[in-house]
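Late entry, evening session. Most of the bench is empty. Finally got around to the prediction I had been postponing all week. Sequence below, unchanged from the version circulated by S.P.
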Amino acid sequence: MGKKLVNVVLYIWMFPQNLLGLVFLFILNKKIVCRIKSERVHSHIIYIDKEVEFAAISLGQYLFISSTFYDKETIERHEEGHYIQSRYFGPIYLIVIGIPSLVTNILSMCLYKVGKTYMLENYYNT
């Protein structure tokens, strides 16, 4: 199977999160700083402004990451893992992985703001 066909099949397999990524891209369009193509991690890596409240979110072929939080560890240890999970789980990724990860991240950030750092420090281990 050719590489383009594989990419099309993967895009369709991960369609729910890709669609959400496209919606997110549309909503944040005016805040995009730059786009970088990367075969290793995602088809698109998208940096966004510091004014966005989250660090990073992986939605299928799209990775949205605040320039404040961009580092190699965030990409390679965590967001790349979500991309691999997205490829594995396909259309059920958001239910099985995405929502629990989002809830854990929000809880971690809330606890961090009140001085409890343990959960945020261990977030990359999940």
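Two things to note before I forget:
The chain has one domain: 3-91.
The radius of gyration is 15 Å.
Will write this up properly tomorrow.
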